[in-house]
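Morning F.,

Quick status update on the modeling queue. The single chain you submitted on Monday has been processed. Sequence for confirmation:
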Amino acid sequence: MSSPRHILLIRLSSVGDVILATPVVAGLRHRYPQAKITWLVDTGYLDLLRENPHIDRVLEFDRTGRHRGLSGIRRLAQDLSPVDLLIDLQHKARSVLLATFLRPTRKKSMVKRQGLGLLRAMWGSDEILRAPHQVERYLAVLGSENGAGQEQQRPLLRVAEADRRYAQDLVGKPTAPLVGILPGAGQPLKRWPGKQVVSLIDSCQQHGWQVALLGGAQEKSLLSELASQVAVEPLLVNSQARLGQLAAILACCQAVVSPDSGPAHMAAAMGVPVLTLFGPTSPDRWSPRGLTSRVIRQELACSPCSNHGRGSCRLGSHECLQSLGAAQVFQALTELLDGALRIQAGAR
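Structure tokens below.
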């Protein structure tokens, strides 16, 4: 079997999935060092991949413009052809149709559900997936195409120099350890109660740490509301940054606290210590992969109850996160940050 000259990897979204799929492209690069590797991703996610050293080209899938509809996907196939090896980690209608037009020499796809499992998912009662971790699920698609060692099987995110300067201008030179706190999540069920977030911010600042309260544009009102309730204004409140700029701000932090969300994976992929608050979803499958990542959760019989945190609590209590107190989270954060600072001091 000849080595592929052009490899196409498809993982269109979302932030966490794209980050967790980066070990796949590392495996392909180590297996086929001479190949051209293209990653197809949805518009808006380019910042997560543009600095990845294993990728030759990142192409944005413009689903509402140039690549819209059947003719748009055919146009995309013409732009990408020829493809010798296609790795489809999305495996939904658009990527399957694109593969049909491309007719690659070899194709490997991630099929999450088949038969009865697919029917259950369509009815909204799919099985809760736990182990193996999502990184292992992605790497399993490669099979013999995976040439990466253990070191390359950790997610990777690198920051562009312009974004690094943007973050440094915002943050300046903190006079104490900087803790990034991200209260938002794509699904409301995964969010920690706001009163607990406020209490955690107050505890951090009383302890002498500085706080960056961070989120996306959709969380602007949430961040403003939380910032208005804390005893001392945080060093930074930002909901305007692009993904690359947010990554650069996270890289300035000595530790990050987040629910199960994309930015938690971003921080971990840059080596930033991350404390992730899990409730409805499974940490066995979704925990951030990093050398200094830690998960905190309540051990409840009903948790996990969802693969992605969609919908509402079936018991009506949201106990998994409602019962996770700020004091408990602050203690875990203290241990995480103290350990990270000791490692940094020892490395000097």
